[in-house]
User: Fold this.
Amino acid sequence: MKITRIETLVCNARMRNWIFVKVMTDQDGLFGWGEATLEWHTRSVVAAIEDISQLLIGEDPTRVEHLWQMMHRQHFWHGNGIVRATAIAGIDLALWDILGKVANMPCSKLWGGPVRDHVRTYCHLGGGKMEDFYETSTEDANRFADLARKAVEDGFTAFKSMAVPPTLPLEGLKPIRTAEKAVAAMREAVGESIDIMVDCHARPSPAMGLQFAKALEPYGLYFFEEPCWPESVDGLAAIAAAVTTPIATGERVTSLAAFRDLFAARACAVCQLDITHCGGLSEARRIAALVEAHRLSLAPHNPQGPVSTAASLEFGFSQPSYIICETVHEDVPWRQDVVDQGFVVEKKGRIVRPNTRPGLGISINEDEVRKHPFEQELLQRVFNSDGSVGDW
Assistant:
């Protein structure tokens, strides 16, 4: 069996362009689906996949680890950069999909069989443009409360929001009170039986992240995400040591070695590796072993398309440290027209039952994808109150 061709299909889904990867073989009807979505870098990733694919044409697709090592180590530049790591991930997911189909079993069974009966999921409320309503008004807090109630009505027992505004490296009480009021409104709206997460999007400096963490600690957050840049390992570690709220990070960490350093510094309690950005399922399994060794929790970052979601869920059924999966369900109204999936989502609790189909258990409707061709993503520009460049 040989790989004959690797194709990319780009599908615009409003905020991002999904990049689907199709790896084809010389066996009639045998191919695999992957995803390599990376916002604002669509053209770069598609080109990187084309470059890397030249290494794989004519190779045996079932030698997944061997091919991963080729993609990562050959042509001199290792696959640690975000574009290359994402390109590798898209191909790697498709290779695992093929291997599952050859073995006629879901990927989770290839990895030792399911370790749980269901995977819990959560949604994202949005709220990322806090700069548009920077004052701590009752109207703004009510907006967060309404979004929180809607998530619970949709069946979720956990949700995340971006209730922390962008700030300068050091500011006074106004942004702290903005975040505090929004989180208080959400907690009052849903009670203590619903888990709330807050995503800082790595906007704050370590000093501001620590202040936000301490201010929000009384609200019993399930986790507090990216309170400062992931490169600031010491800053994350200091915040983690100062509060009881579990600190989460990892969506922008792309290598096993970087996760090793992050965990050794005790910089987080929750690992948010992104399967489509960290080198795929092959590297994610190695990172998950480190998570287990450090007795941390695994909660993958997953705001992308349906193949990423299928892979993240399949991964969840095989990993003991896995606690919850981020999912997107209302980004575009035609999402379910693009994919046919093997797992079942129960609305009550938004839990997912195992996939019973081979591989990742999904198929992509290519005709539907072609109805939504590439469009330039909306450029996001954030500036601080003094006009300096901020983090989006």
User: Anything to note?
Assistant: The longest helix spans residues 82-103. The chain has two domains: 3-106, 110-359. Residues 128-136 have pLDDT under 50 and may be disordered. The longest strand covers residues 3-13.
